[in-house]
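MODEL INPUT / OUTPUT PAIR
PAIR INDEX: 1
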Amino acid sequence: MLTFRAAIAPCWLGLPMASVQVGGTSPPAGGNAAPAAAIEVLNLNKTYHGRREPVHALTDVSLAVPRGAFFGLLGPNGAGKSTLINILAGLVVRTSGTVRICGHDIDREMRAARRAIGVVPQELNIDPFFTPRELLELQAGLYGVPRSRRRTAEILDLVGLTPQAEAYARTLSGGMSRRLLVAKAMVHTPKVLVLDEPTAGVDVELRRQLWAAMRRLNQSGTTIVLTTHYLEEAEAMCDTIAIINHGRLIACDSTEALLQRLDSKELTVTVAEPVAEVPAALAGFTVRLARPGRLVFSYPSSQPQAGAILDAVAAAGLTIVDVSTEEADLEDVFLRLTAAVDGPLDAVAPAVGTGTAP
């Protein structure tokens, strides 16, 4: 049987709750030391009021993104990811809660908070009559970046748009336009870069180039927050992942720890004999017949059984011709977690070692 450990995991990632200041602009302990978290969110709520019943887009979300992390923010459509990002960017006013970016409260230190973050939106908001070079120069000017400190050529090269630097934006392909959005978000050298579905519409090769550039940027010290529906990207790129569903944070942990929550593995054994049913000698295992001659064994990945299974298959008089294994990936974990909280939220048990519930 597959076993699964679901969890609500407030994502303070080693930051004691007592160290998080609610209100005020006092610097962190230690004088001018940089804050331990690039982004701090505490008890964040957002409710939209309209003619119908209020919509609770975010409910008591608390998390912290460590400086220098490559952080994944995942969730189904309508889960609240874009609302959270828009609050960070200052585009949506929160209902209640505290948000800091690099130690700067987004209300009390609005200018410093805005300078510390760059956001790549889902929507293409590019003036079609500007060239990429002109757009970056304009964006840098809006942020007050002196001409001597502008990195237009460097950024264009980083996102692979140097050949198109003088072309009108309206002539760019969808993938190029999305890379131009990434470039615009980088002109003021933000300490935090938020990527909201950055590879939508980008072909495979350009996607690889973009991720290579983001890795280099992250290795240089920039904190990156990624939202994506390509879960294989999140698994490969992110060191920490948070999952939001129905406006609530349902999990936040290292990628490795999240993958270990779905404690399952499958071992597929193909035999030469066209067996039509599971041999009685293998009844002690969790096994199914995928098709004649192919046996699929399931067991917890934390309890290796491959050796015993292969010995039992041989002892049953079967000739092994092929063996393959498959472990749970982030998509499996994501589907189980989001399915678990479709029921009563209180039924999801807190995770061990992921923080103190707010």
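PAIR INDEX: 2
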Amino acid sequence: MLTFYTKPKNDAGYSNSEIEIDNNYFDEAQVNKVDVGNTKILIYNKAKPGKAPIVINHVKFNASEIQKLHSGTNLKNLISNSNWQLSGDGFSFLTENSRYKVNVGAFIINNNNASLLIKNFTVKPQVNEVAFSKTITHQQDLYNLEFNNIQLTDIDTRLLMTQLKLEAAEANLQPFIKIYRDRTIAEDLSSKVGKYPQQLMQTIKFPFNIKKINIRNGLIVYTEKAFISQKIGTVFFKNINSSISNVTNIRNVISSNNLLILDATAGFMGISKLHSVWKLALNNSDGNFEISGSVGGFDAVSLNPMIEPLGMTSIKKGRVNKLTYNLTGNNYSAKGSETFLYNNLKIEVLKLDSGDVKKKGLQTFLANALMKNNNPTNGVTRTEEIDYKRDITKSFLT
């Protein structure tokens, strides 16, 4: 068994860290090769002496061309000029609020080919959706995250091991992301300004720079309990394939390239193909972004499992041929346009009556009378202009 200690972070929030080797391990050694097999490692945080250590089992380490070692040497001196590979069964821990269990699966870090492989990384809630809703006073998201087959190439292993700083040329992974929100709980009316995804990324204390992330066959599922209907509705995107470039929170990297670009395709609700491009500014406190995309054709009735509980509307018939959109925005507003092409669209407006969802007769009649049930109509295509002033109590995608 080996024991390691991580030093406290500095005032800027980053680790000074040199992971020190316990003095009881050895006094001094001059070796050409090291092979350590099936070892248990305990990692203690010196800043929190009473906290249980992170335990990594079945660790294997081999290294060659090693410099002279002595008691109290730090890991940087051990690995800077040696060829080595580190593997283990992974580890897990609870978050500070004990709401989630984080698990890092089996891993291999190879200094010879500058690669990192992780079988999986998960963040699992420790309560179900009903129990979660009972513990909160204002709306929050409950996350269930799983990332499989994580591969990073051309990483700087010295920075990763000694400074907890990740720099890599490319990452490949398969994500499964599930999010739940209960809209029957009181809203959180605090300001969400500064909490766009690209802004939150800059607040992460762990410095990282990944030039490109490739996502393969991913899944995103958003489930919501609606306020009016009291029912559950789900939106999902499957077979997600995308590339994300310039994923970083390191200031000098951002100064030379300030745009994170996501280019993704996905299956929307299992009924149509979606393509979207997002451009997010990393160096701007205004939260500047550009989003464009398109959704292919599908039977409009297929949307009912989503829009009936969440929108209190039912589509009785119709065909969606294509939807295209573009938006440019910031913390406070968004402008753009959308073109929604469809044929023979008929809807019903719904209401909740003694716990049952029923048709609103008059509102349905007026909605269908006012709505043009075809676009284009008489050869003229309508494009709607978007000029939206953001409610700052709402999140990025609301």
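PAIR 2 NOTE: The first strand starts at residue 2 and ends at 6.
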